[in-house]
Design brief:
- It is a single chain.
- A 6-stranded antiparallel sheet has the order 1-5-6-4-3-2, with no helix packed on it. Strands 7-10 form a two-stranded antiparallel sheet. It has a two-stranded antiparallel ribbon with strand order 8-9.
- The protein is built from 13 helices and 12 strands.
- Helix content is 28%, strand content 13%.
- The chain has 417 residues and is α+β, with helices and mostly antiparallel strands.
- It is found in: Cytoplasm; Nucleus.
- It comes from Crocodylus porosus.
- Pfam families: Pkinase.
- This is STE20-related kinase adapter protein beta.
Length: 417
């Protein structure tokens, strides 16, 4: 049985799951036991991986910076005391997880070690302490694109900023598609940005491998139990759940919805009840970015949210920003290239959508290829500084402390994995 089997994790006091301990033969042996997983060799030019220790006392938790995984995971800014470096620490109490949650965690942990690409989120170290799963990864100072929308761009981002963020995300997505994986969870809160301007794609717990028993499938019929909050980003064919199935082009539709989300500060369909949203998607209704050239005359640009759907930019946004947006003149315009990109991604017929590789060659991304990471930083405010005056105690499942329980005065930002 694999050391990554979640039932084993629960019986392990402290167990490091560091890939440096695995030889290539061991990896292949593990994958032979897990036929749905595929080992991917590191890609040239990938992000350098730093291995941190697997001793919980080596991490000084400073502030909770987000939640994820259906609120089962707390994400902390922490200091790795042996090196003094800042890291992100995700802590999940495995005893609170269902079987489906455990399988998703296992899938993410295994695959994240094998993905080696600068635009795919890296996990540096994974270990358990009692029933708590600790995941150590790079600290992304700008958090997610969704966090930027909530705190700095409530009416949507500029086209230049959207271009830089989406280009990095699509590069990571293209790498996954080329290696036979469908992401199935593309949205702004799963696009993370580091302090030096590196864009990384996260949210890997719903990944699906097209490779099974050495054969690569063209169509997928696997329909996981998605949280309702992710439904606005999912493609019509994935939601339809019929005999036609879906493929990697389903992710391209999500890229189009995410482009609208970044442009609007608001995800399409968020103001609709779930059933109405599903009907609109299946009918093929067109949802473009809002600007003075395309927005229907006389129609409200923002309605009070009344649906069961989380927009992905935080629940507080509905109450704090809606009334302000209704009275703010909207004069932003987007280029024909941007509109064409969105239109291509949101095609009802998956075969008419471009591949991720073709999308990178789209006219909209032409300028970003000549830029550097500093070009993205020039479009952003300085990253938020967290109050580290009072450090947090280490979570302890044994004494009944839930990971993520902090003072109400602490500020929790939108950092979702």
């Amino acid at each position: 049985m694999s050391c990554l089997d979640c039932s084993c994790i629960l019986r392990t006091r402290v167990e490091s799951i560091r890939p440096e301990k695995q030889s290539e033969s061991n990896i292949h042996q593990y994958l032979a036991d897990e036929p749905d997983l595929l080992w991917i060799p590191p890609s040239p030019g990938g992000r350098e991986i730093t291995f941190c220790s697997s001793n919980v006392s080596h991490y000084e938790l400073q502030v909770e910076i987000g939640r994820g995984f259906n609120n089962l995971t707390s994400v902390y800014l922490a200091r790795h005391m042996p090196t003094g470096s800042q890291v992100a620490v995700r802590i999940t109490d495995l005893e609170r997880c269902s079987e489906d949650h455990l399988k998703a965690l296992q899938n993410e942990v295994v695959l994240s070690h094998f993905f080696q690409h600068p635009n795919v989120m890296t996990l540096w170290t994974v270990f358990t302490a009692g029933s708590l799963l600790w995941v150590i990864s790079p600290f992304m100072a700008y958090s997610s694109a969704s966090h930027l929308l909530k705190n700095y761009f409530p009416q949507g981002m500029s086209e230049a900023l959207i271009r830089n963020i989406l280009f990095g995300a699509v590069r990571g997505l293209n790498y996954m598609h080329q290696n036979g994986f469908i992401h199935r969870n593309i949205k702004a809160s799963h696009i993370l940005i580091s302090g030096d301007g590196l864009v990384s794609l996260s949210g890997l717990n719903n990944l699906y491998s097209l490779v099974n028993s050495g054969q690569r499938s063209k169509i997928v019929y696997d329909f996981p139990q998605f949280n309702t909050s992710v439904l606005p980003w999912l493609s019509p064919e994935l939601l339809r759940q019929d005999l036609y199935g879906y493929n990697v082009k389903s992710d391209i539709y999500s890229v189009g919805i995410t482009a609208c989300e970044l442009a609007n500060g608001h995800v399409p369909f968020q103001d609709m009840p779930c059933t109405q949203m599903l009907l609109q998607k299946l009918k093929g209704s067109s949802y473009c970015s809002w600007d003075i050239n395309t927005f229907p005359h006389g129609e409200s640009r923002m309605k009070n949210s009344r649906s069961c759907i989380d927009s992905g930019i935080g629940e507080s946004m509905t109450h704090t920003m809606t009334s302000e947006r209704l009275h703010v003149p909207f004069s932003k315009t987007f280029s024909p290239a941007f509109h064409n990109l969105v239109e291509l991604c949101l095609q009802q017929d998956p075969e008419k959508r471009p591949s991720a590789s073709s999308l990178l060659s789209h006219t909209f991304f032409r300028q970003v290829k000549e830029q550097t990471k500093s070009s993205l930083l020039s479009l952003l405010p300085p990253p938020a500084q967290y109050n580290k005056s009072q450090f947090l105690a280490l979570p302890s499942a044994e004494v009944g402390t839930e990971p993520g329980c902090i003072s109400q005065n602490e500020r929790v930002t939108e950092w979702e994995f």
